[in-house]
């Protein structure tokens, strides 16, 4: 899932995302809550309508950005009081408020409000953090069930059986790098019966071997007939590995953020397009890629755009990296389909 | 002509420019000389190849940017010594060097090296400045005729009659706001027999009435069977007015620069899309426009993109403004064709 933090996958027009085959994109609840505000988005019909994205969308709970971006956080059982990274204004995110915001945004999938446990964390700290995440998961689910009919498009979209379509809500497994905490978290979430399950608190600086172990530990505990989502991963080889392990969904800013810094993922490996060696290289970035960037532009031109700070550089690089990620996953889906 | 200063019409992919109907774009000799360098561009086949733009291109002489951007300029009859605005390095632009650079870039149309007389300027100063421009026009033309076969694509592109295609060179009329200097400049340039003629030194801060007077004064002196180009204009109503006076070509950064600052040109007038009044406005920017931006996005979304500094804002706004300019001109051409 390409990440569209503020209601835009940075520097890439929606029509291009559609052409690249993106089926679902993310929006960040924290950012959209601050600007332009969830009430405004609800009044104009919800996030799909606001950003003109008719395909699927997922909003995170806001928890991760509250912890990573905001200032002066104060955590209580009620929720997190924090100051905006934009203007210092004071806000409270609780499970109930996160759900209210996500219902107003109206993405197809919302996430339970959680605390993303930092790495490294002692077992005591991870257990304490998990305690909040589990309490908040139950409150998120309850508040969601009571308020999901308030989604801006309620009644406008019907399921095949004629009932009104509604949002889905996923629970998030936490527990740091402690397998027994992760197991406890997964089992209790499954008892709560969410529409899907995410594994959070990974890709927070831990060695990749830990990431793999936690995924391997948790996945079998989550129902295979519901989506299983690992949050915030990863590099191309990682997402292939996790998909093969049984992960259904992943999101990451890497393809677009790396692109804006000139790092391209190609069938021949990683390429820093700013390197001097590409100054007169007339080859496409990736000779095996059929994306609009590789079909038209040379490495020399992309390097020039980066050297001169031209905005088209970020756009063309992002288009290629997203194409590489989406093609990698499309190929893998075909491969897994042919096996099963 | 949309302006592609550094080999890119800022924030707009080439395929979009083609879809919008752009027939010709500009490149700036001063910028491309400094980065990535004209020799590099020649080695990769010329500017068309380098930026992947198969349609027409025009390069300016570099003179305007030398005067407006560079530091510590020293003007002599030979040319202008200046320091780069990027790194302070010392360079000399003479008519011969400007032509060498423009031949290496290989745009379809190059411009004689001129001095863009500032506004206001005394008659004495304008006459002195014009003296250089006229000397340099003759030297530009001579050097161009002797070196035009060095264009990177020489021999690769043939005219319908089988002879090798070559670049065109336009002369530039200067003379400040003094009609008799302008007439002298135009008459002497026509004697030199250029492939087309530009009126430079306008849009430099003078009242619009002066711009109109100078164009009216000079146009009849320029052959109607060759392109007549007014440099650096203008707002939509200006370019319509000048085209009706007989001007064939114009270039301006206004549509793209204004777009990046949130100023849209629409069939209903100018619109600062950042204004609070558009925060929840679900209408397209211009209800009478069929461009990709107006066809998909709301004013509220474009405002949000500007408020959050998202790069997609500059791209979508630029696409609309270019569409507005290009459609305005296309409609005017059809109107003028139907009259004549």
Say how many strands of chain A there are: 12
Q: What gap, in angstroms, lies between the N and C termini of chain A?
A: 23 Å
| CA-based gyration radius of chain A | 20 Å
Low-confidence stretches of chain A: none
- Give the quaternary arrangement of the chains: homodimer
The main sheet of chain A comes to: 5 strands, parallel
Shape of chain A: globular
Provide a count of the helices of chain A. 14
Major interchain interface with per-chain residue totals? A-B, 40 and 40 residues
**Average pLDDT metric of chain A:** 96
Strands ordered across the widest β-sheet of chain A = 6-7-8-9-10
Order of helices and strands of chain A: HEHHHEHEEEHEHEHEHEHEHEEHHH
Helix amount of chain A, in percent?
A: 40-55%
The computed structural class of chain A is: alpha/beta
The percent range for strand residues of chain A is: 5-15%
Overview of the molecule:
The structure is a homodimer of 340-residue chains. Chain A is α/β, with parallel strands linked by helices and 340 residues long. Chain A has 14 helices and twelve strands. In chain A, a hairpin with a 4-residue loop joins strand 3 and strand 4 (80-83). In chain A, helix 13 (299-307) crosses helix 14. Chain A is globular and about 60 Å long. The two termini of chain A are 23 Å apart. Chains A and B meet through helix 4, helix 13 and helix 14 of A and helix 4, helix 13 and helix 14 of B.
